[in-house]
Specification:
The chain is an alpha/beta fold. It is built from 9 helices and 10 strands. The strands form 2 sheets. Strands 1, 2, 3, 4 and 5 form a 5-stranded mixed beta sheet that branches. It has a 5-stranded mixed beta sheet with strand order 8-7-6-9-10, covered by helices on one side. Strand 3 and strand 4 form a beta hairpin. The C terminus is likely disordered. The chain binds zinc ion (ZN).
């Protein structure tokens, strides 16, 4: 029996705590003497832990503190063991720290204060919830949606408190529409993200210049000097806020290919509309379809409000129309080699 607990202690792996007992029980808490006939998903494993040394203060971390009182046994949900739901159970103590005022619950290497799940389970839930719906993770571990969200929140807070914040060099600026519903005064939020790590760094309501300036006020001069570029869509207030800050004069403004192609497509669409629906409005027949101008009709000048690209398209289209008339009336013939860009003379 002792050898089994030694092996279990090694498997459980909490420093300073050893396994003294373990058993299987039903989900309702009835201890099982035999596992025959009880399916895996209807039983759970309970592992009882016992501290091997004097308790440690949870506030200051100092070891070898005096026990003030022992509390009732508590359970923490742990990672599943070999496909079976597993709990660790332990009796914790309140300690009288020699350096802190008042008694507090001892430090536990496997769970945070007040938590009902072990840290490693919270970590696992947070990782899985980052790539799957909360409902799926909750069903997989047999816990509620709220429990998954609380575990995720706790793990993120722990991660945020213990990691070193990387310097912000490549900034992403974007706005997000919050939808028609909700009681927010602003319908948009501006999100500042770190493009190197892909994580959001700051957000606030609004999408104007003042919103970005509020973020810039939170940065120190050294932090601003480390920024290399700011990627954004072609939203003028974002650009104005960055360019309006003297400390960010060195920052390059970058637009991602999506927005460049979006603007290019809009320009081509607008050009097409101008050519086919504005320039040739007189050429369209009563049915609304484009009609070929009669032979000898003079070329109309391109209106002043259209740019050179439009004039080129206009001229090309009119030349094509005149060539079509020449061919149809027998004064020109189709080239034998009609390759695009060939030097074959098409009219006689
Ligand atoms: Zn202390």
């Amino acid at each position: 029996m002792r050898q089994r607990n030694v092996k279990l202690t090694q498997l459980v792996g909490f420093d300073g705590w050893k396994v003294t007992r373990s058993w299987f029980e039903t989900l309702a808490g009835v201890r099982l003497l035999r596992l025959d006939g009880v399916p895996r998903h209807r039983r759970q494993l309970v592992v009882v832990l016992e501290r091997q040394c004097a308790p440690r203060c949870a506030r200051c971390g100092r070891a070898r503190q005096k026990v003030y009182e022992y509390l009732k046994p508590r359970r923490w949900l742990d990672l599943p063991a070999f496909g079976v739901k597993a709990f660790v159970q332990a009796v914790t103590a309140r300690v009288e720290c020699t350096h802190c005022v008042g008694a507090c619950v001892e430090y536990l290497p496997f769970a945070d204060r007040g938590a009902r799940k072990t840290r490693r389970l919270e970590q696992q839930l947070a990782v899985e919830a980052s790539g799957a719906p909360v409902s799926h993770v909750a069903a997989q571990y047999g816990i509620s949606w709220g429990a998954v969200q609380r575990a995720e929140h706790a793990a993120l807070l722990r991660w945020e408190a213990t990691r070193t914040q990387p310097p912000l060099r490549f900034v992403g600026l974007d706005e997000k529409y919050l939808g028609r519903r909700g009681k927010w005064k602003d319908r948009f939020v501006t999100i500042v993200s770190d493009l190197e790590t892909g994580e959001p760094r700051w957000f606030d309501f609004g999408r104007g210049e003042a919103t970005v300036k509020r973020w810039l006020e939170t940065l120190s001069d050294p932090e601003k000097s480390r920024i290399v570029l700011a990627a954004m869509d072609m939203h003028d207030p974002f650009r104005a806020a960055i360019k309006g800050d003297e400390k960010l004069a060195h920052v390059a403004i970058v637009h991602d290919p999506f927005h460049v192609m979006k603007r290019a497509n809009e320009a081509v669409d607008e050009l097409r509309r101008q050519v086919f629906f504005r320039l040739f409005v007189e050429d369209r027949g009563e049915s609304g379809t484009a009609a070929v101008p009669s032979y000898g009709q003079p070329l109309r000048a391109c209106p002043q409000d259209l740019d050179n690209r439009c004039a080129v398209a206009h001229t090309a289209h009119r030349l094509y129309c005149y060539y079509w008339i020449e061919v149809s009336e027998g004064r020109a013939k189709l080239p034998s080699d009609a390759r695009l860009g060939s030097n074959h003379r098409t009219t006689e």
